[in-house]
Model the fold of this input.
Amino acid sequence: MFDFLEGYDVLGAFWTTVQLTALSAVGSLVWGTLLAGMRVSPVPLMRGFGTAYVNIVRNIPLTVIIVFSSLGLADIFGVTMGASDDFKLQGFRLAVLSLSAYTAAFVCEAIRSGINTVPVGQAEAARAIGLSFSQSLRLIVLPQAFRAVIAPLANVLIALTKNTTVAAAIGVAEAATLMKTMLENEAQTIAVGALFALGFVVLTLPTGLLLGWVGKRMAVKR
Amino acid sequence: MSSVLYDAPGPRARQRNIALSIVFFLLLALLLWWAWGKMDDKNQLEWALWEPFVTAQAWNTYLLPGLGNTIKAAALSVVIALPLGAVFGIARMSDHRWVRVPAGVVVEFFRAVPVLLLMLFAMEFYVRSTNVSSDDRPFYAVVTGLVLYNASVLAEVVRAGILSLPKGQTEAAYAVGLRKGQTMSSILLPQAVTVMLPAIVSQLVVIVKDTALGGVMLTFPELMSSRSTLAANYANVVPSFIVVGIIFVALNFALTTFASWLERRLRRSKRGTGKVLGAEDVEELNAAEVGGSFGAGAGGSI
Done:
């Protein structure tokens, strides 16, 4: 019954998906937090840049960004991510870069809405004891904001997991790429479809349940 | 809120802000200068590559038909997904376990599966099991994938919309003797539609963005795949990406602006309950929060 699996590395493909997700999650968290910091900063130019970045990136399809990273960034601008001779590795790294850049816009918005849940008095108290902008953001506001945004960030992480499939557009050997090959070559269409769908349910369901539970526990009760 | 994070700048803060602005500006300028130099090296700045975009031919042969197909697929998907989503959303709130549980499983399943997988599967399904012509297949597959995914997202939107209405509405309807079905169709749904409008419009942005996936992976002739034929014709990779990017941003930005205008207007209006589901509410739509059976909240709006 499972003979359609022969000759395919399904687990390997899903492992690539997991790697893409994990690396892009770290990248987008760092870049997204920086962007959120810019968007609330006292420097008008940084605020403007943050706003422009979020509005542009959120409205462009991820497909456009990922395909551009291969045809534009790598081929025209020469950004080969230190793997100019290894095409596969280069595609993987470019996918991580694009996914991070895209997801960061959503992370930034989640964190910014988290900052808005911190009571005004907290920031006022921080300023009253003489903390600077970056100190009050780092020590007072962001730690509380992060606790409030675990559940929204979990949603972003789940969306990121699903978005890694778009990396198939530049030929990264992840789950969707393998599914396409298997659909074309194997007779059991339904079984192949169900297998990959199940794989994603297995990846996303525990993430959501676990982080939802953590988010509830960590949220500051007000 | 952001202004609460810092005082009105004094002389020293003002100097620091100016210094930071200059450093940041220099960094941005450096990036632009680098990009400009690279584009110059690869001759992407030559006027010949940009010229097609001011002639009617490039627009009429490539971009406008592509944009038309993008909009066609997106519009058709939302038109089919909306009633389907309403059915599943209402079914998920049914009093009968045998209706509620299967509807919940279906919705959570399709929300957890990437759209690309649904599109690829639909494509293969149409190839093997139907006699849809090979020209129409990509369009059918894209719409099918988008409908399956977005119907389940909209089901959650509908559910959240109905649950956001005050309990008194249902109670009053029961008190005047309406049945459950009558309460839903003549009291709750009409009010919920108003509540959901901004959320539905912002879901359109997601649908428009996802059509591009069909262009690249399924050769559906929408904006992204007409970009590649255009770039193959004029050899203008970077200019074509910039123009297509601007088109997408303009289209989606218009939709986002419309959604938030709608949201503000509905919040202000005196009629209705003052409840509105905005774009951000959908992003954070989590089954656990809306009081669902089980579910992971599958990142609705990205």
